[in-house]
Amino acid sequence: MPEENKIILGLKALPIFSEMQDSDIANILSVSVLQFFPANYFVMRENEPGDFMCIIKKGQVEIFKGSDEIGQQKTELAVLADGEVFGEMALISNRPRNASAKTIDDAEIFILKKTDFDKFLQENSSLASKISHDIIERMKKNESTETV
Questions:
Q1: Cβ neighbours, 10 Å, residue 130
Q2: Which residues lie across from 87 on neighbouring strands?
Q3: Angle between the 114-122 and 22-30 helix axes, to the nearest 10 degrees?
Q4: Fewer beta carbons under 10 A from the terminal one: N or C of the chain?
Q5: pTM (2 d.p.)
């Protein structure tokens, strides 16, 4: 499977992209920037402002809560690889990051800035409405599980 198709399938598995046509996702990818990150590099840190999301082209990234400092407690949430996405809630919420992301090995990652995503939604109002509804439902679900 070509790399772009793998990335499109990965994005379509996410609620905010599930209703998009492949061509819309390809347009979004066209405004994202491919960056190289060396092993053990923090791509994002917990509690930082969220102004971009990431799509892994190649490599592995650990997602965790807590500190990665020696002697500090850390809770691993996931290990993500090629075609997987993280930080997508930053595109639709104005909340700080709820976890950190650190490369395990050298990685190539597409960075999609919130400003570019917002511009895309302004040009596609019906899609923006659908995404907004899905995100509100997801945030309500996340908040109800956090208080349990």
A1: 15
A2: none
A3: 140
A4: C
A5: 0.76
Q: Residue 95 above 80 pLDDT?
A: yes
The full DSSP string for 66-107 is E--STTS-EEEEEEE-TT-EE-GGGGT--PBPSSEEEESS-E
**Burial bucket for residue 77 (CB in 10 Å: 0-12, 13-18, 19+):** middle
CATH of domain 3-114+124-146: 2.60.120.10
Q: Among 49, 40, 25, 38, which residue's Cα sits nearest to residue 108?
A: 38
Tokens 């949430």 belong to residue: 77
Q: What is the pLDDT of residues 58-77, one digit of tens each?
A: 999 999 998 766 556 888 99
Least Cα distance to 46 among 63, 29, 21 occurs for 63
Number of residues that make up the chain? 148
Q: What's the first-to-final CA gap in the chain, in angstroms?
A: 41
